[in-house]
């Protein structure tokens, strides 16, 4: 049996979002390494790293859910964690020098977009 190569056209959309949430968490980890190591940054980065990782982890769990109710609950958790990540990122941007604004604001935008995507999926369930 020949394997069908996975291409953008025949690939399920869920994998695109899985990859996007993974990249979001990875970019936050990379961004966090650049921040000065003061007390507030240490605490804020711990929180944002946890929240950003949870966005993707719960989305993956949603895709393996046993029921629509479970699927919806996992997506709601992903949405909540995306909101939380945006909150911690906003604190990081507001309490650090302008050197971190561009990357921080870009990550806040991505968190907001993920939240909107999850909201849209939840509304259609």
How would you sum up this structure, described in words?
- There is one protein chain.
- The chain is mainly alpha-helical and about 120 residues long.
- The chain has one domain: Up-down Bundle (de novo design (two linked rop proteins)), CATH 1.20.1440.
- The chain contains 4 helices and no strands.
- The chain has helices spanning about 15-35, 40-65, 70-95, 100-125.
- α1 (about 15-35) packs antiparallel against α4 (about 100-125), α2 (about 40-65) packs antiparallel against α3 and α3 (about 70-95) runs antiparallel to α4.
- The longest helix is centred in the middle third of the chain and has 28 residues, at about 70-95.
- The radius of gyration is 16 Å and the shape is elongated.
What do the pLDDT scores average to?
Answer: 91
Strand-pairing-aware structural class: mainly alpha
Low-confidence stretches: 1-11
Give the H and E element order: HHHH
| Structural domain tally | 1
* CATH topology grouping: de novo design (two linked rop proteins)
Strand portion: under 5%
Kindly state the percentage of residues in helix. over 70%
Identify the CATH homologous superfamily. Answer: 23S rRNA-intervening sequence
Report the CATH C-level class. Mainly Alpha
Radius of gyration: 16 Å
| Envelope shape | elongated
**What's the number of extended β-strand segments?**
0
Task: State the end-to-end distance.
Answer: 36 Å
CATH architecture: Up-down Bundle
**How would you characterize the largest beta sheet?**
none
Number of helical segments? 4
């Amino acid at each position: 049996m020949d394997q069908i190569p996975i291409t953008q056209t025949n690939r399920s959309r869920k994998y695109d979002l899985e990859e996007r949430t993974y990249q979001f968490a990875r970019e936050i980890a990379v961004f966090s390494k650049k921040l000065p190591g003061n007390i507030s940054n240490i605490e804020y980065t711990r929180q944002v790293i946890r929240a950003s990782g949870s966005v993707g982890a719960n989305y993956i769990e949603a895709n393996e859910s046993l029921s629509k109710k479970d699927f919806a609950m996992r997506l709601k958790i992903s949405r909540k964690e995306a909101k939380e990540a945006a909150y911690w990122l906003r604190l990081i941007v507001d309490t650090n020098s302008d050197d971190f604004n561009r990357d921080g604001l870009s990550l806040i935008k991505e968190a907001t977009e993920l939240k909107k995507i999850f909201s849209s999926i939840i509304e259609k369930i």
